[in-house]
Amino acid sequence: MKAFITVIALLAVASGGFVVYQQKNLEVLEQEASTIWPQIKLAPTVAKLDSFLVVYEKTTAGPPAKMLRDSLKLEEDWQAATKEHTSAALQAFVDNHPASRYEDECQKLMVKIAVEEEWQVLATSNSVADLQAFADKQKGTPYAAKANARIIDLEVDKIFAGKHGVLPPAQRVAGGGTGSNTLEIENGTDYTLTVQFSGVRSQKLVLKPRAEGSIALPSGHYRVAASVNAANVVPFAGEQSLEGGQYTSMFYISGLAGK
Fold first, then answer.
1. Is the pLDDT at 15 greater than 70, yes or no?
2. What are phi and psi of 57, to 5 degrees?
3. Among 59, 88, 233, 247, which is disulfide-ready with 170 (CB 3.0 to 4.6 Å)?
4. Is residue 117 part of a domain?
5. pLDDT value at residue 190
6. 225 class by beta-carbon count within 10 Å (0-12 exposed, 13-18 middle, 19+ buried)
7. Looking at residue 185, which CATH number applies to its domain?
8. What is the DSSP string of 48-81?
9. What is the mean pLDDT of the chain?
10. 223 contacts: CB under 8 Å, gap ≥ 6
11. What is the pLDDT of residues 138-182, one digit of tens each?
């Protein structure tokens, strides 16, 4: 029994000595932190603050150092996420910094980037249906115009690849600036006419029967396709170089029809 009591007493002394040792260490750390912390504040970085907190987090300088570190880390991560400019990078930012002051801005940017990324996939798509669905969803935006231009390119390609008549180039009736062109088009048929231009700026003009209209295009080389809403009438296709000025075309049914 006596030996057991002696062991307990020794443990108590050892434990008390450990507490005193820890207290002395904290006092030393406080003194060191009071010297180092003002220097770090002059030119703080996340790396410096991380290193400081490893040693001095328990000191009175620990809380303000952690607050400053978190603030700098937020800015650093936001700059990196916006520079990468991907949905994945922004989602990682939200996960790491929930309810930050950039939350609303981040959500808006994520929506914008999602559209950009969707268009990057569709930009080379050959699916008119997918492109049309995207254009309808983005109606009134530049992406809708891009999708519609891609649809025109695909439809012109399809007409060129299939049975078609030869479309003569529009007649130039007046010169003008080399950068702009106006094409006056007359639909001399009893059908709705669609004329599509695939080139520098892919656009189309739809005219009702016996109607006239015009379209403005920048100078350059175009592949042109014209079709009417009649299954038994083959489309026409040809090429046109616009050099600035006014052009005119008249479309009519000449008896060339599919069988």
1. no
2. -60, -30
3. 247
4. no
5. 95
6. buried
7. 2.60.40.1120
8. HHHHHHHHHTTSTTHHHHHHHHHHHHHHHHHHHH
9. 89
10. 156, 160, 197, 198, 199, 237, 238, 239
11. 999 999 999 999 999 999 999 999 999 999 999 999 987 778 999
Q: Considering the domain boundaries, does residue 112 fall inside one?
A: no
Determine the structural domain holding residue 200 and report its residue range: 165-251
Phi, psi of 152 (to 5 degrees): -60, -45
As a whole number, mean pLDDT of residues 175-198 equals: 93
pLDDT at 12 over 90: no
Q: Which amino acid is at 75?
A: E
- Number of domains forming the structure of the chain: 2
C-alpha distances out from residue 108 to 83, 86, 90, 112, Å? 15, 13, 11, 6
What span, in angstroms and rounded, lies between the C-alpha atoms of 122 and 119? Answer: 5
Whether 129 is in a domain gets the answer no
**Domain limit, last residue, from 63, 84, 105:** 84
Q: Which of 84, 119, 145 is the last residue before a domain boundary?
A: 84
3-state secondary structure of 176: coil
- At 201, the amino acid letter reads R
Please give the DSSP secondary-structure letter assigned to residue 184.
Answer: E
pLDDT on residue 222: 98
Contact by Cβ (8 Å): 223, 237: yes
Residue with tokens 């990468």: 84
Q: Which of 204, 203, 195, 199 is nearest to 249 (CA)?
A: 195
- For 129, half-sphere exposure in the C-beta direction (CA atoms, 13 angstrom radius) is 0
Structure tokens at 163: 């049975």
The token pair at 144 is 């809708």
Return the sign of the alpha-carbon dihedral for residues 97, 99, 101, 102.
Answer: positive
Residue 78 lies in a domain: yes
- Report residue 195's pLDDT band, with 50, 70 and 90 as the boundaries: very high
